[in-house]
Each structure stands twice: as C-alpha cells, then as structure tokens.
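Subject: for your reference before the review

Hello V.,

The reviewers asked for a structural picture of the protein, and I figured it would be easier to keep everything in one thread rather than splitting it across files. Below is the amino acid sequence we used in the manuscript, unchanged from the supplementary table.
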Amino acid sequence: MTPIRKLKLVKKKTLILFFLLLSLFLIFFFFFSYSFLAVSKPVKSDTVLIEAWISANEIEQIADNFINPETKHVLIVGKIKGKPLYDAASPAPGWTYVNDLHQPKDKKGVYLWANSSLIIDPSKYPDTKQNDSLLIQIKASGSIAKSRFPFFNLIINGKYLSSTFTDDTLQTFSFATILPGEKPRSVGIQFDNDLKTESEDRNLFIYSIAINGKEIIVNNQNATIIRDGEKVPTGFPSQAELRANYLVAIGIDKNRIQTINYRPSDYNKTLSSAIALNKYIGQTSLTSFNIFTNGIHARRTWFTYKKVLGEDYNIGVISLKPNKYERQDWWKSRKGILRILDESTSYFVNWVKLTF
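And here is what came back from the structure prediction:
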C-alpha cells in the first residue's frame, strides 16, 4: 500500500470516528441530558436546604409537597445583595431604563411584571402631609394561579415595611410606620410571586397609592416600574431573607428557618453558596440534608455541595419542576436548548475545577 493510500485510509477512519463520536454526543444530548442534569436523589433527612435564587413557584412546591411536621430545619442559602442602582425614586445618573407600565381597559390598575417593583416619589406631591407618621394605603387586586393570589412587599426608602396577599377584589391595604427625622423619598411595591401556567396567570394590579391621605392614581406620569430585581432594593439584606419572608407568609414556621448569606467571590454562585454552607454547618450537628433547586441545575448543585462538604455528610437532591418548559419538550424551544447547553458546560467546568 502506498503512503498516499495509507494517508487517505487514516483520514477516512478519523472522519468515521469523528462522526461516530458526534452521533453519540447528539444522541446523549437529546435523549439523556435532561434526565442526567435534572437528577433527583433524595436521602432520609429532617433538613431541607433551599437555593434562594429559585422562583416563588418553586418555593411553593417545596412548602406544599416536602416540608412536613417531621422537617426540623429549613436552611436557605442566598447571596448578599449589593447596593442597588435605584434606591430612591429617580434612576441613577447615566442609567437608562424602559418604564414598563401598562394600564388595562378594565381599569383594575397597572399590571406589574414578574419580580418587578413599582415606585412612587412622594416628593412630587408637595400637598402630601409630611410628618414622622406615615400612612400608606394601597388599592390593589390580583388574579389567582395554583390556589394562591399575588403577594407583595412594601418598601419605604429602600427598607422593608410589610407584606400581604391580595385577592380578586379591588380593596385597600393600609400600612403605618414612623420615620423619625426622615422624609419619605420612595414608596416601592415589589411583586414577589408571579406565576403563569398554561391555564392560569397570577397578576398583581395596583390602582392607586395614598400617602397620608393623598391618593395618587398610578399611571405613566407618576410612577416607575423597574423589572430588574438587582437594580432595586428589596428591603432584605440577601436573597435568603427575601425567600424566608415568603416561606413564612405561606405557612412555614419561622423558628424552623435559618438563612445563610454569602457574597459571591466570582461568577460561580453555586460554589460560593456551598462554601458558605460548609462554614455554617461545621458549627452544627447536622449530618444530612436534601437540596432543593431548579430543574437541570440539580446535577451541578449536588456535585458541588458533595465535593465541598466531603464524605462526612449524607447529601440528597431534588429537582423542582421548571416554570418555562416541560421535560418532554425542552428541545422544541431555542431557550430550552440554550439552557441545556449552558448548564452542561457549567457542570463540566465545575467538575474539572473540583476534581483536579
């Protein structure tokens, strides 16, 4: 056989091997990647661990289906929030945004977007009575989804004041506080538990806000909606406290809840949260827990926590049902495919980083 024929034969074999490996990868990707990433392997334990970045609907799944009388500890791990860009009633200098208010024809009020905040600037209303006592009256209603109505947090000058659920009737919710030596700079309403299913849509409608008796009908001229939750204050120092507040609101005993806060050291929030838990759990007698996280993130979370905490802990994981796409048809949407690719890459990077 001539050298040229040998070279052609080698190239042909290499090409066949390449396409064989590519075919195996595609078969695994489309048929097995979701089940591999969205792993559920619970262990017997009386401790629940929640990653605080998951959605309110996933928090509800945990409360309704997994937290029971035998559950002694509910740990919530969440990142510390940085200084918001939008902490008063005016956007930060040089920062542009889109004011996404929309008023429906039925006049129920302004719709709030998922995890958005509606903000009123009291200083625009000089005839509002200014004193240490502050009475906020919010006229609002909501639509139900999965047996729960909208829930919102009231934020005054960037600080948490109170929370409540709405219902399907337009009613007035009253909140009173004292601001000694401090003028009200901003009144914020944070929509905390948005949810849309195939048949239901949980919406929050804000009709008006009254400040010390001065009613302000919410519209594009007098209010701002910011959709990015990282740019506005929630009134809580971390995601963990924010989610703990909602867990208590839906019936979980606050005495069972422990928040663990961390400041991400790099882009890898999962690794940062596992390190924070390792510091906390070493001071306790806990030896086992089940991690609850979002869908395809489960494999990476489970692997990371087991590597960081080591073999002394019995760690399980439960993958919660995602809101946006179903397991059987993730590949039908561009977003589903991109999420699978992104999570697969992130898991591989974590595996390499923690293995070698």
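For the response letter, the relevant points are probably these. The chain has a mean pLDDT of 84. The longest helix spans residues 3-31.

Happy to draft the paragraph if you're swamped.

O.
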